[in-house]
């Protein structure tokens, strides 16, 4: 969502201590941290793609299978980082006017079943509606209230639980990327989504070429295994940063873009290695506040702006992962996330 289209006021934000910046004032404080150097962005993009291609090439040509697994997993982690650069480019945060970047990222999106038209439409919708109650799965996983859950039919409950099931995340390569982002938009509006057709032809064409060159094992280590791991990791990060135990949901009357960023988007604490591989996407509250900040400057922003240093947090610890799936409904009376069991009570 373009910050230029934000609401003109944010009066619904609760009272705060004098001197603490919120809303547009806080957004303004982040603006000095947009991309300063295209050369810097080129370095981060080029090094990421170079390492990813090298790792996947090693996974394809090394004869000893345990080492192929290692490089395939490394390739998957680098694919996550590469996707963050793709994501930032489409937000206009990096290399906005570069023709080379245009072709690189459109090719990457096609090969990884992320056609830019459908991705942009759903992702921009997500940015404009994060932290809002919705039974529809448009650009995000659905989120309803405990009252809506109690009033739902059995089929509606089944559909809701199915969409938020961990298996959807684990199988996000075929389900989220293959079906939701690529195939379904093409079937619904074929004229608008030619790039989805190109993505399907590119992705399966790559698989066909690799199969002819080296059989199933080459396809498995270079495409199937890394795509499965990278898709699952990326999908979980996206899910968990907007569906965690401590998140807050504002009423439709009180919702603002800024509250969605600060109260319904998390900071995911990670060690430095995972922070690097995930392209700092754990600084998600800052990204939602200002999408123009490049991924490599997000830690700098958090260190510089005190108001961003006490966010709602989650981690990759097993307990937090379980909580992200367990706490699936917003209870308007308790003003917190609750489990299905709590909602029945």
* Shape, principal axes of CA atoms: globular
SSE string, helix = H, strand = E? HHHHHEHHHHHHEHHHEHEEH
Provide a count of the helices: 16
Percentage of residues in DSSP E strands: under 5%
Helix-residue proportion: 55-70%
Structural class, by secondary structure, is mainly alpha
* Radius of gyration over all CA atoms, rounded: 20 Å
Mean pLDDT: 92
Low-confidence stretches: 1-16
**Total E-strand runs:** 5
Question: Can you tell me about this structure?
Answer:
With 345 residues, this protein is mostly helical. 61% of the residues lie in helices and 4% in strands. The chain is built from 16 helices and 5 strands. The strands form 2 sheets. A 3-stranded mixed β-sheet has the order 1-4-5. Helix 9 packs across helix 10. The N terminus is likely disordered.
């Amino acid at each position: 969502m373009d910050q230029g289209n934000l609401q003109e006021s944010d009066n619904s934000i609760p009272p705060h201590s004098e001197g603490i910046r919120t809303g547009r004032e806080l957004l303004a404080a982040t603006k000095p941290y947009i991309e300063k150097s295209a050369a810097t962005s080129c370095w981060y993009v080029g090094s990421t793609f170079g390492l990813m291609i090298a790792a996947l090439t090693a996974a394809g040509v090394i004869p000893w299978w345990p080492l192929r697994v290692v490089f395939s997993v490394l390739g998957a982690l680098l694919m996550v980082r590469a996707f963050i650069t793709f994501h930032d480019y489409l937000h206009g945060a990096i290399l906005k006017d570069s023709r080379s970047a245009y072709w690189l990222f459109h090719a990457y999106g096609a090969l990884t079943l992320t056609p830019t038209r459908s991705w942009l439409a759903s992702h921009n919708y997500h940015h404009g509606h994060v932290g809002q109650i919705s039974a529809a799965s448009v650009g995000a996983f659905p989120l309803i209230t405990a009252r809506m859950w109690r009033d739902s039919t059995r089929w509606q409950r089944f559909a809701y639980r199915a969409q938020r099931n961990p298996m959807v995340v684990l199988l996000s390569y075929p389900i989220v990327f293959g079906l939701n982002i690529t195939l379904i938009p093409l079937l619904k509006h074929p004229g608008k989504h030619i790039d989805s057709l190109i993505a399907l032809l590119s992705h399966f064409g790559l698989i066909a070429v690799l199969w002819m060159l080296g059989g199933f094992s080459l396809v498995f280590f270079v495409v199937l295994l890394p795509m499965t791991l990278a898709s699952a990791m990326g999908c979980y990060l996206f899910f968990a940063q907007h569906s965690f135990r401590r998140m807050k949901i504002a009423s439709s009357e009180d919702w603002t873009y800024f509250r969605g960023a600060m109260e319904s988007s998390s900071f995911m604490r990670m060690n430095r290695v995972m922070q690097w591989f995930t392209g700092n996407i754990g600084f998600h509250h800052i990204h939602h506040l200002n999408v123009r900040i490049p991924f490599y400057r997000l830690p700098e922003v958090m260190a510089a702006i005190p108001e961003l240093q006490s966010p709602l947090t989650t981690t990759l610890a097993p307990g937090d992962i379980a909580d992200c799936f367990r706490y699936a409904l917003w209870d308007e009376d308790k003003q917190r996330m609750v489990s299905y069991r709590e909602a029945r009570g």
